[in-house]
Amino acid sequence: MTISIGAIDDDISILYTLEAMAQSAGWNIKTSTDWRQAITWTQRKEVDLLLVDYHMPEISGLDLIEKIRSISKNIVILVLTIEESPTLAQKLLSLGADDFISKPIRLADFTSRIALHYRLASYRRLPGIEEPHKGISQDTMRLVIAELEAISPDKATAHDISKRIGVSYQTAHRYLEYLAGAGIANKEPLYQDGKPGRPKYLYYIPR
């Protein structure tokens, strides 16, 4: 799987690290300390995915996300940040980011997040993916995926996800089934020692 990545960060040492990680995975990467380069790459469709620093001297990561999203709805945007608050995560997602990668960056997080969201983007580009199914929204779907990623390699039931993101069991189940049907998540039966009732399933992001 060949992925073209663009990385924007005012810290050159971070860019060197990202370049080494991308090359170790066999991916192409462009790097720059100038946020304007992200706009150029997006306009010219030179990259599949952008890594954007949240804290930059000339422009905030939030403003840059908005500028990029005004140009392309399909490009994947991952934000690099030292902050991990739920409030910030919700703000990033609402403005159009697909996910974030925490600093200091770990190779396992870097490769898994990029592979996952590149795969998800392939579904986004299909006809109708903006409204993939009645009752399915992109923002909630991203939240469900982010939670599955956060608990990986553990697995979760619909009840677990409903509690973690604050939606009803029915909503969590609908999104998990959609992701499983699209091949983005896997599911396996949770055996209950012969107890009566509907079978339960564990969901997880395949590695």
UniProtKB/TrEMBL annotation:
The modification 4-aspartylphosphate is found at residue 53. It comes from the Bacteria. InterPro entries: 2C-system_Tx_regulators, CheY-like_superfamily, Sig_transdc_resp-reg_receiver, WH-like_DNA-bd_sf, WH_DNA-bd_sf. Transmembrane segments: none annotated. One of its GO terms (molecular function) is phosphorelay response regulator activity. It holds the Pfam family Response_reg. Residues 4-118 form the Response regulatory domain. The keyword Phosphoprotein applies. Keywords: Phosphoprotein. The keyword Transferase does not apply. This is Response regulator receiver protein. It comes from Thermovirga lienii (strain ATCC BAA-1197 / DSM 17291 / Cas60314). The lineage of its organism: Bacteria, Thermotogati, Synergistota, Synergistia, Synergistales.
